[in-house]
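Sequence in, structure out. Go.
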Amino acid sequence: LNTTIALFIPIFTLNIYEGIFRYALDRETDKGNLIVVAVKYFLISLLPFALLVMANVQFNIIPTFNKYLKFFVLMYIFNSLSAILTGIAKGLEKLKIIAASGVLSSLVIIIANLILLLVLNIGIEGYFIANIIGVVTQCIYVLVGIKIWKYCPDIILKGKDYKTLENKIVT
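Output:
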C-alpha cells in the first residue's frame, strides 16, 4: 500500500507541493494565498482518488485494497497532506522543522510498530495504524512548527485573490 500511495500522490495532487515550495520561496508571494491554493488542490486530489476507490470497491480490481480500504484511504489523505505541508515548510525555509518532523515521524512509527505488532500482536493492521499515526504526528508537528495560524488572517482577508498565484503554480 505504501508504494501505491507514493505513486498516487504526485499524480492526483498534480505535484502541487513542488509548485507550493517554489512560490513559497518567493518573498513577494502572499503566504496566505499560497496556503489557499495548497488546500484547494489537496481537496481536488481527493476526487479522483475517491473515484478510484469506488471503482475498486465496485469491481474488486485489487482485492487487497478493498480488504484494507480504511487504511488505504487514511494513508493517502495524510501522506498527501504531509507532502503539501512539507512543501510549504521548505518554501518558508523551515528546514529544521522538516528534519525534526521526519525524525519524529520515524520514531513514532517505530514505537507504534513495536507496541502494535509485538505487544498487542495486531498484525498487518497494526503496521498500517503505526504508519498512519507517524504521518499524522508529522503533519501536526509541521503545522505547529510553521505556525500556520499566523497565515490565517491573510487567508481570511485576501483568500479570494489567489487566482493569479494559482495560475502560476499550476502552469
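Check: The CA atoms of residues 39 and 84 lie 8 Å apart. The chain has a mean pLDDT of 86.
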